[in-house]
UniProtKB/TrEMBL annotation, chain A:
PROSITE patterns reported in the protein's UniProt record: ABC_TRANSPORTER_1, ABC_TRANSPORTER_2
Recorded superkingdom: Bacteria
InterPro entries: AAA+_ATPase, ABC_transp_ATP-bind, ABC_transporter-like_ATP-bd, ABC_transporter-like_CS, P-loop_NTPase
Name of protein: ATP-binding cassette domain-containing protein
Family stated for the protein in its record: Belongs to the ABC transporter superfamily.
Domain ABC transporter: residue ranges: 2-243
Any single biological process term in GO: transmembrane transport
UniProt keywords, alphabetically: ATP-binding, Nucleotide-binding, Transport
Organism: Paenibacillus nanensis
GO molecular function: ATP binding; ATP hydrolysis activity
Amino acid sequence: MLHVHRVQKSYRKGGMLSREKKQVLHGISFDWMPGECLGVIGESGSGKSTLARLLLGIEKPDGGTVRFDGRNVADRKARLGKISAVFQDYTSSMNPFYTVEKIVLEPLTTRYGRHFNHHGKIDSLLFQVGLDPAYRVKYPHELSGGEAQRVCIARAVAAEPQCIVLDEAISSLDGSVQVQVLDLLKDLRKLYGMGYIFITHDIEAAAYLCDRVMFIREGRLEEMIGVNRLKEVQSPYAQHMLKMVIR
Amino acid sequence: MVNMLEIRKLTIRERSTGKVIIPDSSFDVKKGSCLAIVGESGSGKSLTCRAIMRLNKPGIEQAGDIWLGGENLAKLPEQEMRRRRGRRLCMIMQHGMRAFDPSRAVGVHLIETLAEHFDWSKSEMTGRMKRALESVRLNAPMDVMNAYPHQLSGGMLQRVMIALTLVLEPDVVIADEPTTALDTVSQYEVVEQFIRLRERLGSTMIFISHDLGVVRKIADEVLVMKDGRIVEHGTTGAVFTKAQHDYTRSLVTAKLSLHQHFRQVMGE
């Protein structure tokens, strides 16, 4: 279980020497249960990507704690093999000098060492994300967006973590591929029993995949509600968001 | 209706291998209309649009004619072409982050672009830019202009780009997945902005998007691409209701499944 308790984060505004700070997160608290798919919905600039980085332990909160199974996520051992991530910008999240094979196996080699026997593993992972084994020798620049994001998902799944944080993971993909990737995530969830924290601005996608969604606005938790009760949202902000869906 | 852009026998191939990526593609964009190009990633939508802008990488070769209001862009020398970009043809890229110079404040970049095309004073440029930024729902325009690209979110940068287009008032706006990186609320408003931009300037638009919801809202005509080929071209209504090609139908139904699920959840 992931326990987020009153996390706060601010960044320096202006130059390196400026003292002025901009508060991005104002004490957000929530719990994520194993196997659950939790959607985090917010506008750009609402602090959802900052929240993702805090959940992943890439950055430390100024105040509050993020604990995974009782251990602070800032400790990399607490995260190893338990929590992984897929980011929006797939090009910058892969080493351009690595082949697809090396990219997907990277979490496994860090965990089990270089000589870990992975025969068949890579092919089955690529197959699960809908890619042909021929992709093993390709480099990131040879992939289209949808393919690259699938590689990133395969990499996130490789270590069979309990939780994958998806930060706008489908937002740069095109419509039909978005649905394919969402279906893929649903299937992988059934297969591995893993859970997701699905950070997005796309309410429709969140409703499609998630069990629970939370709305954040300007770094504050606005409302948390089960997807099957989505139409009963109370806060005016969440109601406004639901109205803005282009149909 | 007069055609603003006429693409004739556009062929794009890789220089090193000679592999043809887009074989012989021809289409027109009518003056003041909006053509949406849809298709999966890797179908050649962006390549086509970059070919119109002549912005493809040196490793990519293009042949064919691109007529912009009686002028063949394909035959123009690079220096002339550079003058057309921005003033007559404007492109809004998918990734706002990469469209800006990371080592300079956003405002510097914007003013530099405007100075390239207009003889306005600095205060006039700033003033116009400020109003444009406000109109795309960036409420603190001066803060935005003084910020560096990395300090702004992707959605904000995209809106800055749209604001710049509003000031440049080009004849043709090419928008390459402009709403993809935006959240639901700004997506809604940016699409409104695009519609308003068309109404105000009467500019012709090529709108690349995979979001068929957005396409249905903004486009007059839709062109469907698959593996570099144009598989379908028709009015928006026709493509959505009676698509001829299986591929188009699969694109339409994929998005529908999301919509339907959402409607179900919302109890509509």
